[in-house]
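Example record for the data management plan.
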Amino acid sequence: MATIEVGEREVRVRLQPIERFFSLRGDVTFPREAVASVTVFERGLDAVHGIRAPGLGAPGVRAVGIWRRRNGKELVVAKRGQPAVRIELRDEPWGAVVIGADDPEAVAAALR
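Corresponding structural encoding:
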């Protein structure tokens, strides 16, 4: 499962090897000041919108990879039954990241 590390100046999303494989990406880092908003979803897959390209998408089960929308792209690592945090970004190549988390409230609090 991907993890979110919140530092004083930057946020890093660390992907597991299988997640890197399906998303064709490595870890993602962005400045904390780029965080526009943070939303917690009890069902992480509800936070996923757009078209998968590239990635793994098993509807209702798992979403790993890049999801594209008109307003940009999103990094997604979410699965059924797991809450997630959706981090909207500004002035970054990523419009948002959606990452499953065991304690999304703690992640959201650290980012606010």
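Summary line stored alongside the record: The CA atoms of residues 34 and 91 lie 7 Å apart.
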